[in-house]
Write a structure and sequence with these properties.
It is a single chain. With 298 residues, the chain is of the alpha+beta class. It folds into three domains: 78 residues, 2-Layer Sandwich (Uridine Diphospho-n-acetylenolpyruvylglucosamine Reductase, domain 2), CATH 3.30.43; 125 residues, Uridine Diphospho-n-acetylenolpyruvylglucosamine Reductase, domain 3; 82 residues, Alpha-Beta Complex (Uridine Diphospho-n-acetylenolpyruvylglucosamine Reductase, domain 1). The chain is 28% helix and 26% strand. It has seven helices and 18 strands. The strands form six sheets. The protein has a five-stranded antiparallel beta sheet, covered by helices on one side. A four-stranded mixed beta sheet has the order 1-2-5-3. A three-stranded antiparallel beta sheet has the order 15-16-17. The N and C termini lie far apart (40 Å).
Length: 298
């Protein structure tokens, strides 16, 4: 049985699959292939197909910081499936790449383990959190990560990498598109359930009060420059409400862009470039996008 036949037989290989519904912006065209990864063999099969057809590969978590081009992605998208949704809560908590971060935070809290509460404010997955060193409310993944189990697509090997080897920095790791996160180990501390759940409620309350809910967005658009918040810079320049097509800078939080009815990925890209230009012209600061643009935007 060929790699394609194995994946199709297992229902894990899709062709010309719309990516918009797999992202928080709900925008963008299809991928040539979408492979749901439940086991290491799925990755070997997927990379065999990608290599044979000369395709780029793209690991995709919950799509909370990705904008896919309107024309789509002419390569292979790899997304962690239910086989990577395992989790074991303890002093060293283990979670598969597909586990949603808010779910991991709540499970840990209910088990009387603290340290992961900040994840309740991040609508991503464990795999994405490692790749981006995700964080909020003064904490980030590097503060709690012990190690990560990674499948190297190029060599078809699996290895455990300690957090110290990942070059973790602000919204950065050295993991590339050929590194597929399988699971991660996090350090937690003993914490009364009521206290951990209170922290989670406080974070959820803060998000409702300060971030736009009920809209299609990708969270923070720009990384914060050192010593400053990107949202405050954009707000000071009076750019809240600035629009490009059907996408606008949120009036609630200036570092969030909201997509309205009829919005396109090109609208998002255009607004990002316009805000970058105005901030650079007015302040000399070059804002770096935190969201990733996938596909051809030319």
């Amino acid at each position: 049985m060929t790699a394609s036949e194995r994946l199709r037989a297992a229902g894990r290989l899709g062709e010309n699959v719309a990516l918009g519904p797999l992202t928080s912006f709900r925008l963008g065209g299809p991928a040539r292939y979408l492979v749901t990864i439940d086991a290491e063999q799925d990755l070997r099969d997927a990379f065999e197909i990608a290599t044979r057809e000369g395709l780029s590969v793209l690991p995709l978590g919950r799509g909370s910081n990705v904008v896919v081009a309107d024309a789509g992605f002419p390569g292979m998208v790899l997304q962690a499936g239910s086989g990577l949704s395992h989790r074991s809560i303890g002093e060293a908590t283990v979670a598969g790449a597909a586990v949603p971060l808010p779910l991991l935070a709540r499970d840990a809290a209910r088990a009387g383990r603290g340290g992961l509460e900040f994840y309740t404010g991040i609508p991503g997955s464990v795999g994405g959190a490692i790749r981006m060193n995700a964080g909020c409310h003064g904490s980030e993944t590097s503060d709690v990560l012990i190690s990560v189990r990674v499948f190297d697509l190029e060599t078809s090997t699996v290895g455990d990498r300690p957090a110290a080897d990942l070059d973790l920095a602000y919204r950065h790791s050295n993991l590339g598109d050929f590194d597929f996160v399988l699971e991660a180990r996090f350090a937690t501390v003993k914490r009364p359930v009521a206290e951990a759940e209170r922290v989670i409620r406080d974070i959820a309350r803060w998000r409702r009060q300060h971030q736009p809910g009920g809209t299609f967005n990708a969270g923070s658009v720009f990384k914060n420059p050192e010593g400053e918040a990107a949202g405050r810079i954009i707000d000071r320049l009076g750019l809240k409400g600035l629009e490009s097509g059907a996408v606008r800078v949120s009036r609630r939080h200036a570092n969030f862009f909201e997509a309205g009815e009829g919005a396109t990925a090109r609208d998002v890209r255009s607004l990002v470039l316009e805000v970058q230009r105005r901030v650079r012209d007015e302040t000399g600061i070059d804002l770096e996008p935190e969201i990733r643009f996938v596909g051809d935007f030319s």
